[in-house]
Amino acid sequence: MNTFFIPTLNCRIACLRKFKTQFLIRNFCGAAALILILFASHAVAAGELKQVIVKEVTASSDGTQNPKDWPHHPAMTKDGNSKTCWASSTNDTAGAWLKFNIGAKVKIDQIQIINGWIPEGYPDFFTKNHRAKKITLIYDNGKEEVFQLQDHNNIQTLSPTLAGETKSVTLRIDEIHPASTGDEPWVTISEVTFFSRE
Ligand SMILES: [Ca+2]
What is the tens place of the pLDDT at every residue in 59-104? Predict the structure, then answer.
């Protein structure tokens, strides 16, 4: 009786060990595959941002009054200098716009904006002009996205989702943070930089 029982029990133990080993191998392979998939998808989603070159900027108005000492042309939103700005004319506030012509279809993944203007040597100048408060971005596909801008002169990052591949982006100012004085207030934006994820 015992001679029959012992081999059977040993066989069951061996089978159980084999099953356990196969179970562990299967689960390990499954977990490894899942980690690889997650890592790959993360790597794609977190691709490096590359700056998009803007060929031309136009605007609803140009508040330049002294072109030699104080130019405020639309292209000054893309000169890489946070101390220079585009300014609208004084009567062009809500509804004013900037159009950034890229020249080739690009998917826009991120936009960095420096709102308002603090010129070199004038640290208290920020509130003397209007700043953008609510803006709408308009793309070639006709879609629009609304963003609220904070009232400071540091970089603000926007993450558009509706642009698709577009050759241009129009930034329309819908609401402003009003200037604290009535002395030549313009709407001012210092920099707008576009990025595409590679
Ligand atoms: Ca600038």
Answer: 999 999 999 999 999 999 999 999 999 999 999 999 999 999 999 9
Q: How far is 128 from 109, CA to CA, in rounded Å?
A: 32
d(CA 99, CA 168): 7
- Each residue's pLDDT tens digit, 14-60: 545 665 556 555 665 555 555 555 555 554 456 899 999 999 999 99
**Does domain 49-197 match CATH 3.30.930.10?**
no
How far is 120 from 123, CA to CA, in rounded Å? 7
CA of 34 to the centre of ligand 1 (A): 46
| CA 9 to ligand 1 center in whole angstroms | 82
What is the whole-number distance in angstroms between the Cα of residue 104 and the centre of ligand 1?
Answer: 23
pTM of the model: 0.77
